[in-house]
Design brief:
Blueprint (H helix, E strand, L loop, with lengths): L2 E3 L6 E3 L2 E3 L17 H13 L4 E3 L8 H13 L6 E6 L4 H5 L4 H16 L4 E6 L8 H13 L3 E7 L3 H14 L4 E5 L13 H8 L2 E2 L20 H5 L1 H7 L3 H18 L3 H10 L6 E3 L3 H10 L6 H8 L18
Parallel strand pairs: 3-4, 3-10, 4-5, 5-6, 6-7, 7-8, 8-9
Antiparallel strand pairs: 1-2
Helix pairs in contact: 1-2, 1-12, 2-4, 4-5, 10-11, 10-13, 11-12
Length: 331
C-alpha cells in the first residue's frame, strides 16, 4: 500500500479508501444488498492486513448500522491512532427546521450520534454529506468549527457539491477564522468525469484532496457488460438510475478497460482504479466480497502508460449530472 497526505490536513491516508456504504443491516435502510456484521468484520480485517487505513462511512448508511459495524471492527482489529475514520452528516429535516433547531445544534446532534455509533471520541474527517439549501452556510461552517474546537472532529470535508459551493464555504471560513474543508468527495470515475470541468482544477489550485465515490461505477468498471450475477447489480435501482441511460457510450470505454486488462494480465478493477489514482488522492472503493478489496489494493501497484491513459480517456463524451448532484439545487 502507498500513502499520501489528505490535502492541507496532517492526515496520512492510504491511496485506497474503504467505502463502507455496503456494510450494515440490510433490513434497516436504503439498500437491500448490504452485508451483515460478520462479513463486514472479515473484509475490514483483510483491508487492514493490506494496509488500508482510511475508512469512510455515514450516519445515513443503513440507519447508523454501518457506523456501528465499522466502529466495532476497528476497535477490535486496529489501534485508533493507526486509522483515519470519516463519517458524514445529513441536512436538517423539515421537522428540525419547524421546531427551531439551528444548523449548529443539528451538527452537534449528528456528530454525537455518530460518535456513539462508532464508539469513538472523535472522527478524523467529518463530511458535509450534501448541500442543505434550507440552512445558511454560515451556520454550517460555524457548527463544524465548533465541533473541531471541541475535539470531536480533527478535520472537515464536503461531498456532493459544485466547485462554487466549496469555494464559497472556504472563503467564509477563512474570513471568520473557521476550520476549512480539506477534502471533497465527488462522483468521479472513468465513465463519469464531469468533475474535471471545475472541481479538479479548483482542488489542484487549493491543495484540497479529491476522494471520489462510485470509483468503479457500481461495478460497471469491474466486470464486462452483461456480467451481473451480484445482488447489487440486480437490486441497486439508484445505480441503474445513474448509469443505465448512458450505457451505450460508456460501454465503448469499458471495452477498452477489458482490452488493457487482458493485455496486462490484470483485472478490470486494477485498470479502472489505476487510471483514477492518477487523478485523485484516494478513491472510495466499496467492498462486499473479499476479492473486491484485494483487487483495489493491487491497483495501487499498477502504473498505466501515458498511451494507455489517453486510450481510456479518448472516447468520453459529456454526461448529464446524475444521482445526488442532479438534485443539488434549491427546492
Amino acid at each position: 500500500m502507498k500513502y499520501t497526505k489528505l490535502g492541507n490536513s496532517d492526515l496520512n491516508v492510504s491511496r485506497i479508501c474503504m467505502g463502507c456504504m455496503g456494510f450494515g443491516d440490510p433490513s434497516r435502510g436504503q439498500h437491500s444488498w448490504t452485508i451483515d456484521e460478520e462479513h463486514t468484520r472479515e473484509i475490514i480485517k483483510r483491508s487492514l492486513e493490506l494496509g488500508v487505513n482510511f475508512y469512510d462511512t455515514a450516519i445515513a448508511y443503513q440507519s447508523g448500522t454501518s457506523e456501528q459495524y465499522v466502529g466495532r471492527a476497528l476497535r477490535d482489529f486496529a489501534k485508533r491512532d493507526d486509522v483515519v475514520v470519516a463519517t458524514k452528516f445529513l441536512p436538517r429535516t423539515q421537522e428540525e427546521i419547524e421546531s427551531g433547531i439551528s444548523g449548529q445544534q443539528h451538527i452537534e446532534n449528528m456528530i454525537n450520534t455518530s460518535l456513539q455509533n462508532l464508539g469513538m471520541d472523535y472522527v478524523d474527517l467529518y463530511i458535509y454529506h450534501m448541500w442543505d439549501w434550507q440552512t445558511p452556510i454560515e451556520d454550517i461552517m460555524d457548527g463544524l468549527n465548533r465541533i473541531v474546537k471541541a475535539g470531536k472532529a480533527r478535520n472537515i470535508g464536503i461531498s456532493n457539491c459544485f466547485a462554487w459551493q466549496i469555494a464559497k464555504a472556504n472563503a467564509l471560513a477563512e474570513k471568520e477564522g473557521f476550520a476549512k474543508f480539506v477534502s471533497i468527495q465527488g462522483h468521479y470515475n472513468l465513465i463519469f468525469r464531469e468533475e474535471e470541468r471545475e472541481m479538479v482544477p479548483y482542488c489542484d489550485e487549493e491543495n484540497i484532496a479529491l476522494t471520489s465515490y462510485s470509483a468503479l461505477a457500481s461495478g460497471r468498471l469491474s466486470r464486462r457488460p452483461g456480467e451481473g450475477g451480484t445482488k447489487r447489480a440486480e437490486e441497486d435501482a439508484y445505480a441503474k438510475f445513474k448509469y443505465d441511460a448512458t450505457a451505450a457510450q460508456d460501454n465503448v470505454i469499458i471495452a477498452r478497460v477489458v482490452e488493457i486488462a487482458e493485455k496486462r494480465g490484470v483485472t478490470m478493477t486494477e485498470v479502472s482504479l489505476a487510471w483514477l489514482l492518477t487523478k485523485v488522492t484516494s478513491p472510495v472503493v466499496g467492498a462486499t466480497k473479499m476479492h473486491h478489496i484485494e483487487g483495489a489494493a493491487k491497483a495501487v501497484e499498477l502504473t498505466l502508460t501515458p498511451e494507455e491513459i489517453v486510450y481510456l480517456e479518448e472516447p468520453y463524451v459529456p454526461h448529464p449530472l446524475a444521482g445526488v448532484m442532479a438534485q443539488n439545487k434549491p427546492a
